[in-house]
Structure formats: structure tokens, C-alpha cells
Amino acid sequence: MAALDPFPSHRPPDDGHRTRIVLAEVSRRAPSAELTRTELTEQTGVGEALVRGLVRAQLALAVRMSLVVAIGLGGLPLLFAIAPAVGRTTVAGVNLPWLLLGVASFPFLIAVGWGYVRLAERNEQDFTDLVQRPES
Asked: Alpha-carbon distance 96 to 105, whole Å?
């Protein structure tokens, strides 16, 4: 009794020639980072949304730091008006308001500026990482 072949159509031809089967070339897709960069340079809707997100993050940071400066420096005259004894205090023969507004304000502004630059660069680095993220 002969064994039945369950897949007779998959049997190679008996003419002695091999048939070469070539898969269609898989279309290459650009990596997601390249797609994102393209969308940014061509200013597509997605690219505009990414840039808008960066601008919003930078604006929110600027507003927060402005509030820190406004409260830090703007609150001093309010403090002196509410507590006149603090305004009349002297340190080494100099009135405390002059020391705080004339001397201490500069290191405060430098520290806020340094913090702003550091955080703004972090926002930009996060944006760059998002744009250059490899395809998962």
C-alpha cells in the first residue's frame, strides 16, 4: 500500500531543476526619529504639535521663574510696609531694606537665572530625546 502525500502540490518538480523563490523586498521604513525630524522640518501637524509642546513647556518655566522673582523681590517692600520694625532694622550700620534690595537681590537674581537656564536646557534635551528616540 502506497503512502498518501498530504501536500502533493508542495512537492518539487521531478524535472531535476530547482525553482528559486525570492521574497519581495521589504520596503524600508524610516526610523521614527527620522520621521519625526521630517515632520519638524516640513512643519506638518505633528511637527507643529511637538514644537508647540516645547514652547508651552518653556513658557510655563518662564512664568514660574517670573513668579519666584516677583514674590521674592516684590514681597520685600510689602514685608517692610506690614512690619515697619523690620524696615528699621540695621545690620552693621546699614538699613536692612538697603542690604536686601541693594545687595542680596543680585545673588538671588543670579541663582534664579542659573536655575532657569538649567531647567530650560533640560526641556530642550527632553525634546531632543523625544525627536531622536529610536523606533521601538
From this structure: 12
